[in-house]
Automatic annotation (TrEMBL):
The keyword Secreted applies. Residues 233-267 have a biased composition (Pro residues). Residues 151-272 are annotated as: Disordered. It comes from the Bacteria. This is Uncharacterized protein. It comes from Lactococcus petauri.
Length: 317
């Protein structure tokens, strides 16, 4: 069938229209797909940003040091322009954790080996913690170190008391020795005085006896015995009156009578005491040379007790 010119023209127009519609449909479909992909990329990026924010905030709460590593792994996925702020924040968190770990290490060492050097080192490490976000951790470490400080001070007080007690005991011993030596010296003086008095009295008696014996001996004749060396004295006529034998004078009593030296008086000692709040005696110690020394030792012992109820009052007598 032969088409007319008019039919050919109409067919051409229809063909052109159909071709244009197909092309427009393809273009539209491509635009829709591109928009969809772009939206997916944006959504993924937004989720990454949200995750970075959350992990960074979690690390800044200082609940666990492992949160720092988690945040760092998420931040690495960002572009360099986007991640600089988060990197700086996480680095600050890590530095604070380093300070906390260092201070904790020093406090633990001070708790194990309690002395002034370790306490000072730990205190310096705690003072380096300045961020307000980790103030609670700093306070916790300070409380632990304060307990160590108190323990060190108590140890010093006990050593001082022991040293003071040794000095007081030595002083008491020295005073006792001095008193004994003084007493022995006085006793020796008394014995010497008594000996001199006795010797004087015996001297008088001895002289008297000698005189008596000499007087008596002058009137006694010596009989020669059987050897005949001495001639017997002739018997006088009339018999002479015998010479009376003088009686020795009694040993004169010393005038005035010597006053006996009294026994040496021992040096007085004092006792310190400490009582608890209930009035019960919890500590006593004697042998102090002075009342002040006894009271001072009692007060020192009371001050060294950690519980005031156990050492409510102290004194000496």
């Amino acid at each position: 069938m032969k088409l007319s010119k008019k039919q050919v023209i109409v067919g051409g127009v229809v063909a052109v229209l159909l071709a244009g519609g197909v092309t427009a449909g393809v273009v539209h479909n491509n635009n829709v797909q591109a928009a969809k992909v772009a939206q997916q990329v944006k959504d993924k990026h937004d989720k990454l940003i949200q995750s970075v924010k959350e992990q960074t905030a979690q690390a800044e709460n200082y609940q666990s040091e492992s949160d720092v590593k988690t945040a760092q792994d998420v931040i690495k996925k960002l572009d360099d322009k986007e991640k600089s702020d988060y990197v700086n924040r996480i680095e600050k968190v890590q530095k604070n954790w380093n300070l906390i770990n260092e201070a904790t290490k020093k406090v633990v060492n001070a708790e194990k080996i309690q002395n002034d050097t370790n306490v000072k080192t730990a205190q310096k490490a705690i003072d380096n913690i300045k961020d307000e976000k980790i103030k609670s951790k700093k306070i916790g470490l300070q409380i632990r170190l304060d307990k160590v400080k108190k323990s060190v001070e108590n140890t010093k007080k006990k050593k001082h008391m022991t040293s003071q007690k040794g000095l007081d005991n030595k002083k008491v011993a020295d005073n006792t020795t001095s008193s004994n030596e003084s007493a022995q010296s006085k006793s020796s003086d008394v014995k010497t005085s008594t000996s001199d008095t006795t010797a004087s009295a015996n001297g008088v008696s001895s002289d008297s006896n000698s005189n008596v014996q000499a007087s008596t001996g002058g009137n006694i004749s010596v009989n020669g015995g059987s050897n005949g060396n001495v001639a017997p004295s002739p018997v006088p006529t009339p018999a002479p009156t015998p010479t009376p034998t003088p009686k020795p004078d009694p040993t004169p009593a010393p005038t005035p009578d010597p006053t006996p030296t009294p026994d040496p008086t021992p040096a007085p000692t004092f006792t310190g005491w400490v009582k608890n709040r209930a009035g019960q005696t919890v500590w006593t110690q004697g042998g102090f040379a002075t009342l002040e020394a006894a009271a001072s030792a009692a007060a020192a012992w009371a001050n060294a007790q950690p519980n005031p109820e156990d050492a409510w009052s102290s004194g000496a007598y």
